[in-house]
Specification:
3 domains; alpha+beta; Alpha-Beta Plaits; 479 residues; eight-stranded mixed sheet; Hypothetical protein af1432; single chain
């Protein structure tokens, strides 16, 4: 091959490499856009599913022959209650049906308690699912707790039957976590029918279980293992999946149970860990509302500031050695501390407490925790005057930017916010106000002092330099 052809070939190869890189980049962008659109579609469909059909437009009500939603993480519980043929020898069929109905009515109460969706009964089997229709991160824990209550109920019922020398129902539970498709229908009350491998695997686990056992798949186990003691219970063949491991749920871990021996009822430590995990769901709901409802002129008191404060209370909190419940209270207060801006700018701390009181009971916060969270929110009022360690952490996190290297640009966003509302004069006046404020400000926790105090002094010098520069320019103009 002569030199000219070799150069042409090398040039062509080089061009192909460039084209390949560009196509790869475009493919990645398209993939990201597709993922974002799918997420938006899922969010929209989830909202639609919670709206009464009579309030929906016709094209949304009936987009086709069926309505369906995709849930990436749902936990399906399949309870296999059998024994009609065996028990029929001593009981009339209508009595058996009444007994089965009573069992399912009790299951319905348990499912409702844990905010799980009953899907359907299939003869003498019962199916429900967590994470449907409202997505949540705690659904594997919720479903396992419900399964344990069902198990306890059936064991008590068995003892009653045995005392009367009667045959009892066979009872097995299989649980699996994974994606499902939910077809929904109905007008006044929406009902759901689940499809997909997750349902099939839950039923296979139930059929492979022994009497009165609660068994979970390895996927569910990975999501609940820090809360529950489980025993390995072998493998089961699942069509198209090969052999799948399952585990038998024994009890709540002793450290997280009211009665360490029985391990049936979660204690306060369990609930704090649960609420910390659930905080992800609460945060998504509140931040989404802030994105949609905060006024456009909030250049400083925006979603970014809320996220900053949430991160900072956790950092300072752990630095100060507070426990998990304190971290929960601090993060929740940080989430709501500026949420009141969607109601009004002035007194937004008070409005934030009202929003907290509206949402937190729905997320199993007790009244004492709600009261403490409201006190933490009110502690962020200016000037800060914290009365205890948690309030000190809250105040330091809220004014963390005073000691950060981005103090000036962040301060300028607050200036623009106030200026648009005609609450402040020119920028130099604002810088003088900030200098006075930051010069008298103090961090209250040792962690914040260590992290920010030195840099805060640098910001004071920067402010003085800006003020002097502006006054020199103004003096020159006046001459």
């Amino acid at each position: 091959m002569d030199q000219h052809k070799e150069e042409q070939l090398l040039y062509r190869i080089s061009e192909l490499i460039k084209e390949n890189k560009e196509l790869t980049k475009q493919l990645k962008e398209v993939s990201n856009q597709k993922h974002q659109l799918e997420k938006e579609r899922e969010n929209l469909e989830s909202i639609i599913a919670r709206v009464a059909p009579e309030h929906l437009p016709e094209e949304v009500k009936y987009p086709g022959k069926s309505r369906a939603l995709k849930f990436e993480m749902a936990t399906v519980l399949y309870a296999d209650v059998q024994g009609i043929k065996r028990i029929a020898r001593e009981s009339a069929s209508y009595d058996l049906m009444d007994e089965l109905d009573n069992i399912f009515l009790e299951f319905n109460k348990i499912v409702k308690k844990y905010k799980i969706e009953k899907i359907k009964t299939i003869g003498d089997a019962y199916m429900c699912a967590g994470g449907v229709p409202e997505k949540n991160i705690t659904n594997p824990i919720d479903v396992v707790l419900a399964a344990m209550e069902m198990q306890d109920y059936m064991n008590r019922l068995k003892q009653e039957y045995e005392a009367k020398d009667r045959e009892f129902w066979d009872f097995r539970i299989g649980i699996h976590t994974g994606p499902v498709t939910a077809n929904f229908y109905g007008r006044k009350k929406l009902s759901y029918d689940l499809k997909g491998d997750t349902v099939h695997i839950a039923t296979r686990i139930a059929s492979a279980s022994d009497f009165c056992e609660v068994n979970v798949s390895i996927m569910t186990y990975e999501l609940i293992k820090q809360y529950f003691n489980c025993d390995y219970n072998g493998k089961i063949p699942v069509k198209y999946k090969g052999n799948m491991e399952m585990l038998r749920v024994k009890k709540i871990k002793p450290a997280f149970a009211v009665n360490r021996r029985s391990g049936r009822e979660p204690n306060q430590i369990f609930m704090i860990k649960y609420l910390l995990r659930q905080f992800t769901d609460l945060q998504e709901i509140i931040l989404d509302r802030l994105e949609k409802e905060l006024p456009a002129y909030l250049y400083y008191h925006n979603v970014k500031h809320t996220i900053d404060v949430i991160n900072q209370v956790e950092l300072i909190g752990y630095g100060e050695g507070v426990d998990d419940e304190a971290i929960l209270l601090l993060k929740t207060a940080a989430l709501f501390h500026d949420a009141g801006h969607i109601i009004g700018y002035d007194n937004h701390e008070f409005y934030g407490t009202q929003l907290a009181k509206e949402y937190l009971p729905q997320f199993q916060y007790n009244q004492q925790q709600i009261d403490q969270i409201c006190e933490l929110i009110m502690a962020t009022q200016i000037p800060p005057d914290p009365q205890n360690l948690l309030e000190k952490i809250m105040c330091d996190a809220d004014l963390d930017y005073l000691g950060r290297s981005d103090f000036i640009p962040v301060s300028n966003t607050l200036y623009e916010e106030l200026k648009e509302q005609e609450k402040i004069g020119d920028l130099n006046e604002w810088n003088k106000m900030q200098l006075k404020f930051i010069s008298h400000h103090q961090y209250f926790t040792q962690t914040a002092l260590n992290l920010r105090e030195v840099n805060k002094q640098k910001q004071i010098e920067r402010l003085r330099a800006l003020i002097n520069e502006e006054e020199n320019v103004s003096g020159t103009r006046s001459l």
